[in-house]
Design a protein that fits this description.
The complex is a heterodimer of chains A (about 230) and B (about 475). Chain A is about 30% helix and about 25% strand. Chain A has seven helices and twelve strands. Chain A has helices spanning about 5-10, 35-40, 60-70, 90-95, 110-125, 140-150, 205, and strands at about 25-30, 45, 50-55, 80, 85-90, 105, 125-135, 155-160, 175-180, 185-190, 200, 220-225. Chain B folds into three domains: about 5 and about 75-115 and about 140-220, no CATH class; about 245-365, Dna Ligase, domain 1 (2-Layer Sandwich); about 390-465, no CATH class. Chain B is built from 14 helices and 18 strands. In chain B, the strands form five sheets. Chain B has a five-stranded antiparallel β-sheet, with no helix packed on it. In chain B, strands 5-6-1-7 form a four-stranded antiparallel β-sheet, with helices on both faces. Chain B has a four-stranded antiparallel β-sheet with strand order 8-11-9-10. The mean pLDDT of chain B is about 85. Classes of the chains: A alpha/beta (about 230), B alpha+beta (about 475). Chains A and B meet through helix 3, strand 5, helix 4, strand 6 and helix 5 of A and helix 14, strand 12, strand 14, strand 15 and strand 18 of B.
């Protein structure tokens, strides 16, 4: 390739199909280097919507986010949770380094209000991150969230069931999480720039939440016939 | 000294008409003996031929849909003090000039407002926003400025030396003198102020009294003119009568928006912010509807009040048509002037409280909260709801799950593998919610990590959280 062409290709406005879209992407490091390497900009995109799809709860979806949330909560902005399915447990969040004084939980009664809340929070520019658990998503509502995130430069995360993986979505990043024997498998369904076929495997217990005790696997296993 | 005189020539009309956007034909009348006479009419009425000075019956004959209201002098005075409060944002030296004017001393605050032109622009746009038409004149003396405003001469006079030349052109009838003095001056051929000044002073004083010379001296600046400045009342309370009853809450927003700039000016005059205010909507023969607004922090930003008022009014149902609205601000707290960043627009914190206020209005106060840890061994008691944004003592516990189930669910999973534990918690015997439990971290068949416990009293197993 000629030197002249090389120089042109260095221009930040030019993106080559074989690279991740890095230029101009503002991202928040996830705290997991293996995942950062696969995400455009090296982390969770700010000013964009991220979708996290999961089969069932409790496989580590929050532990995946907590290092980034802890970092985001350093800013003097809200960390908003819209319609969380359970109670975000203050001692655990505090242990992960999340500044609780920036936590804002909204539990709207009506679903339309929940969408409104998520959009307003994203749009306001007063939130570093907005986590939302919303029902009945359609493309128009999702697009409003994506635009809101762009306007307010917030990190928007929408949690949905894995069955939505085949649907179209305006989100900038879509991940499907799967619990595996060796840890959490993160399938990147959509990212800006290039497709990734194989999942990223993460051991959340190793790099994730700061732990006061050694990893739990040293404790001998017992089996339990539950009632 | 530089004085700005504001005169509101159609104040009797505006105290009614500024509360609605649409302009139906509208007149204000006054009783003179047996006659009721139109003293002011709006553009829609003038278009059908109504003129000030007409009898109301004649005006009604010209325009069938005419709304006529009697002049309300006390409401005019109230409006004037409302505007005086509003003008407090520009200068602390505001003086009321009855019946329909204000005088502002601004020489000391021109630099703050980036020059006179900019200040006048702000005053004009502010008055426009509140729905007042005005004549504005500037002069080195208060009375001189007022005479210019009365003559509808919108001029700016900076030099005291020019006063004599400019005021000289004004007709003598503008002077604040008894009618016999004014007619006497006309009879001796003194039609303008300059004519008066040409006459010998001693003769003028002998014939027309010292009052005339005194007034001319004050206008020209040769005699001192001490003005009493407006002192803001301890509470803000303003009412606005609507020309026609309003049925929808959202239509009230237009009227309320006219009052908010006054509140803002009042607050800046007192260097304070408002934390709570209420909009009282009065109905005929019905108890009034009170719309309450609360802020997270004291504020005096009109934009914020408007935004919250709009959202609150959108949720308000009116039981009956409203004829008068009133704005009461009781909880007025000192507000420190914020230092603005030289390089950045640092309004993040302000945005944050605004978001919180908006969410609270739409979702209800209890639906928006923060979380705080609480010193208790029982997991369900180890947290508290708190006011979002309040200072929180961190009480980290890394062995806790990120999701807590609001109430423990009996285990129904076929097989759970216990990964770690037990952590024994025995607490709460003193308040009847006794917890005697062994907690374990368990994994179910599909990879979810659960926080389960065995109740040592009943031997039952429960799920209490998810390590999400």
């Amino acid at each position: 390739m000629s030197a002249a062409l090389d120089a042109v290709l260095q221009h930040p406005g030019i993106w080559r199909g074989d690279r991740l879209a890095e230029a101009g992407m503002d991202a928040l490091p996830t705290g997991y280097p293996e995942l950062d390497a696969q995400l455009p900009g090296g982390g969770w995109p700010r000013g964009a919507l991220t979708e996290i799809l999961l089969e069932r709860e409790g496989i580590g979806e929050l532990r995946l986010l907590l290092p980034a949330l802890a970092r985001a909560s350093e800013q003097d902005k809200w960390l908003t949770w819209v319609s969380p399915p359970h109670l975000p447990y203050a001692p655990a969040l505090s242990a992960a380094g999340v500044k609780l004084e920036h936590l804002l939980v909204a539990q709207p009664k009506a679903e339309a209000d929940a969408w409104w809340t998520a959009e307003q929070a994203l749009r306001s520019g007063a939130c570093s991150a907005v986590l939302a658990w919303l029902k009945a998503p359609d493309e128009r509502r999702m697009r409003r969230l994506q635009l809101g995130a762009e306007t307010g430069h917030a990190m928007g995360v929408l949690f949905r069931h894995a069955s939505a993986a085949e649907e179209r979505s305006p989100a900038a990043l879509r991940l499907r999480l799967e619990a595996g024997a060796e840890g959490l498998a993160v399938h990147i369904l959509k990212r800006r720039g290039g497709h990734l076929d194989r999942p990223v495997l993460l051991d959340l217990n190793r790099t994730g939440v700061r732990r006061a005790r050694p990893p739990l696997s040293v404790v001998p296993q017992k089996t339990l016939e539950a009632a | 000294m530089l004085w700005i005189a504001l005169r509101f020539p159609v104040l009797p009309l505006e105290i009614f008409s500024r509360s609605i956007a649409a302009s139906d034909p509208f007149v204000v009348f006054e009783k003179h003996g047996n006659r009721t006479q139109v003293i002011a009419c709006n553009a829609a009425a003038a278009a059908s031929g109504v003129q000030p000075g007409m009898a109301v019956s004649a005006a009604q004959a010209l325009e069938a849909g005419l709304i006529a209201r009697a002049r309300d002098l006390s409401a005019e005075q109230e409006s004037l003090s409302g505007i005086a409060a509003w003008a407090g944002r520009f200068t602390p030296s505001v003086s009321i000039q009855p019946p329909d004017g204000l005088l502002l001393e601004v020489a000391s605050c021109l630099r703050l407002h980036r020059g006179l032109d900019n200040l006048l622009r702000m005053i004009r746009s502010g008055l426009d926003e509140m729905g007042y038409a005005s004549t504005i004149a500037c002069a080195p003396t208060p009375h001189g400025a007022w005479l210019l405003a009365l003559a509808q001469a919108e001029v700016i006079v900076h030099e005291a030396a020019q006063m004599e030349r400019i005021l000289g052109k004004l007709p003598v009838r503008l002077l604040d003198q008894p009618p016999q003095v004014l007619s006497g001056l006309e009879m001796v051929g003194a039609h303008t102020v300059r004519d008066c000044l040409r006459l010998p002073r001693s003769g003028l004083a002998r014939r027309f009294g010292a009052g005339l010379l005194d007034e001319l001296g004050r206008a020209l600046g040769s005699l001192p003119d001490a003005r009493e400045f407006f002192v803001p009342p301890p509470e803000f309370e303003r009412r606005l009568e609507l020309p026609a009853p309003v049925h929808e809450a959202e239509a009230l927003l237009f009227a309320a928006r006219r009052l908010l700039p006054e509140l803002e000016g009042y607050l800046s005059l007192r260097q304070a912010g408002v934390q709570e205010f209420e909009l009282v909507c009065r109905h005929e023969r019905m108890p009034a509807t009170v719309v309450k607004l609360g802020f997270v922090k004291p504020t005096r930003s009109v934009g914020r009040m408007q935004l919250l008022l709009r959202e609150t009014l959108a949720k308000t149902r009116l039981t009956a048509p409203v004829h008068t609205i009133a704005l009461h601000a009781r909880l007025i707290l000192p507000l420190d002037a914020a230092n603005t960043d030289l390089f950045q627009e640092g309004e993040d914190a302000e945005d944050g409280t605004l978001l919180l206020e908006r969410l609270r209005i739409r979702l209800g106060k209890e639906a928006v909260f923060g979380l705080a840890p609480h010193a208790d061994h029982r997991p369900e008691c180890a947290w508290r709801r708190c006011e979002a944004g309040g200072a929180v003592e961190p009480l980290p516990n890394a062995r806790r799950p990120a999701w807590l189930l609001p109430r423990p669910v009996p285990c129904r999973e076929g097989r759970l593998v216990l990964k770690s534990g037990p952590e024994r918690i025995e607490s709460g015997w003193w308040d009847g919610r006794d917890a005697v439990r062994d907690y374990y971290v368990a994994q179910d068949g599909s990879g979810s990590r659960l926080w389960v416990y065995c109740d040592r009293v009943s031997g039952e197993w429960y799920v209490h959280g998810l390590f999400a």
